[in-house]
Write a structure and sequence with these properties.
The structure is a single chain. By secondary structure, the chain is α+β, with helices and mostly antiparallel strands. It folds into four domains: about 140 residues, Beta Polymerase, domain 2 (2-Layer Sandwich); about 80 residues, Hydrophobic Seed Protein (Orthogonal Bundle); about 150 residues, Hypothetical protein af1432, CATH 1.10.3210; about 70 residues, no CATH class. Helices cover about 50% and strands about 10% of the residues. The strands form three sheets. The protein has a seven-stranded mixed beta sheet with strand order 3-4-5-2-1-8-9. A hairpin with a 4-residue loop joins strand 3 and strand 4. Helix 2 crosses helix 4, helix 10 packs antiparallel against helix 11 and helix 14 packs antiparallel against helix 15. The radius of gyration is 29 Å and the shape is elongated. The chain starts with 6 loop residues before the first helix and ends with a helix.
């Protein structure tokens, strides 16, 4: 057993006067046949970190958790502890360090994360049957008050089950469903972190469609009401059967299932306003715009960065553009040029959206061909590629916001006809535009 651990860690454990244990996901993965190198080795023991005699950086004074350096690697070390909760709060009010292993085990959540290995000799301590559950691929709470200690464990349950491909024990499912309201008290930041991990669950151990099942498990446990309540209205909300095999919620799940990791957040929220638009307007025609607005509110509430929000919102806002292929080539060309920085991701979202209907095999339009045409023609999709600058226009006589407006007009002309992107022609055209604009202004003043 101990041969699977780094030699430097074993030497340290054998020479330490305090028993050192490995615990958690590393051992779970070992018994479940998952990649043990895909998760960290977490350490614990009765001693406080300052008693170990190794370099450390304290992470939590209250919990005693620290990063310790042993050999050339760092490990998270946590002294055995017990915790007490009061008043329905989901953070410990009191913490007692220096307890024994049996007491420490009682504060943990799932049996598969409650397997201890004493590193000096490899002896296994398994107070709740975690080894058998890991081998049988079962997520089981260690007792019925697991979620009362920390409501975030509800999301951890569905995320870990999805990542590992484990089933969730029936009693654990029932407890999660009855205690789903505990999620309401969890901070937005912690919810965001779990959501991101859920949407990337398939990348952890390569379990096919794990990110899809994370959403399915969360829905079956009734978590969205206290997590992303806007999604509840999507449940069983019908769509036109000519174009969709699923209701709005299940279409969303299937869109996420087929989405590239980069666009899964956008996929999760891309149709979130469909029920609202249908009930308000009698149709879903404006759902892309409204979904973008709602997505921004949700992501701000969950404390996503401005960069992440702007990216997802742009994809959602534009995901319905010219689905029927009725826009002219020139309009599509301008649209692609204006969104060149996200066009590849928009195509990924469109493809996932189409596959998520259960009716289509691919995306409905081919922005990639238009994009390639823009690149082949050296069209100035970015203002930096235009052969005149704002300074040039200022010298001609433009000022204020008119500089940006004229640059934008010249850029659009050259996107449609890239051979015109010549400095001489652009300067001449801008001068003519300025003369026309000045004449119009004079006529308006005279009137």
């Amino acid at each position: 057993m101990i041969s699977i651990f780094p030699d430097s860690l074993i030497r340290f454990a054998k020479n330490s006067p305090h028993p050192i244990y490995a615990v958690g996901g590393f051992l779970r993965n070992l018994y479940a046949g998952l990649d043990i190198n895909a998760t960290d080795i977490d350490l614990c023991g009765e001693a406080r970190v300052e008693e170990l005699g190794v370099p450390y950086r304290l992470q939590s004074k209250k919990l005693g958790t620290a990063l310790v350096t042993i050999g050339e690697r760092q490990y998270e070390y946590t002294p055995f502890r017990s915790e007490t909760y009061f008043g329905g709060k989901h953070i410990p009010e009191t913490v007692q360090l220096g307890v024994n292993l049996q007491t420490d085990a009682q504060r943990r959540d799932f049996t598969v994360g409650c397997i201890y290995c004493r590193l000096a000799d490899g002896e296994i301590f398994d107070p709740y049957g975690g080894v058998a559950d890991a081998k049988n691929k079962i997520i089981r709470q260690i007792h019925d008050k697991v979620f009362l200690s920390d409501g975030l464990r509800l999301l951890r349950m569905v995320r870990i089950a999805a990542e590992t491909g484990f089933d969730i024990d029936e009693n654990t499912k029932n407890c999660a469903k009855s205690q789903a309201h505990l999620l309401a008290d969890i901070s937005p930041e912690r919810k965001r972190q779990e959501l991101v991990r859920m949407l990337n669950a398939d990348l952890m151990y390569g379990v096919t469609d794990a990110h899809f099942y994370a959403l399915v498990y969360a829905e079956s446990a009734g978590l969205f009401e206290y997590f992303i309540p806007e999604m509840v209205q999507m449940r069983k909300f019908p769509q036109n059967p000519l174009y969709h095999n699923y209701d709005v919620l299940w279409h969303t799940f299937h869109t996420v299932k087929n989405a590239h990791p980069r666009v899964r957040l956008a996929a999760l929220f891309h149709d979130i306003a469909k029920p609202k638009c249908k009930l308000r307007d009698g149709n879903m025609h404006k759902h892309a715009m409204e979904s973008a607005r709602m997505a921004k509110e949700i992501m701000e509430r969950l404390r996503f960065s401005n960069k992440e929000i702007d990216f997802a919102v742009r994809l959602i806002y534009n995901h319905m553009y010219d689905l029927k292929g009725q826009a002219s080539f020139n309009k599509v060309k301008i649209f692609v040029a204006d969104n060149m920085d996200i066009i590849d991701d928009l195509m990924l979202l469109n493809r996932a959206d189409a596959l998520g209907t259960g009716k289509h095999n691919d995306d409905l339009h081919k922005f990639d061909k238009v994009k390639q045409a823009i690149l082949d023609e050296n069209a100035p999709y970015d203002l930096s590629l235009l052969k005149v600058s704002g300074d040039d226009l200022t010298e001609i006589g433009f000022s204020g916001q008119d500089v940006g407006l004229e640059l934008g007009r010249l850029r659009r002309i050259c996107i449609l006809d890239p051979v015109l992107n010549r400095r001489e022609w652009l300067v001449s055209t801008a001068q003519n535009d300025l003369r026309i604009w000045s004449k119009i202004c004079q006529e308006e003043r005279s009137v």
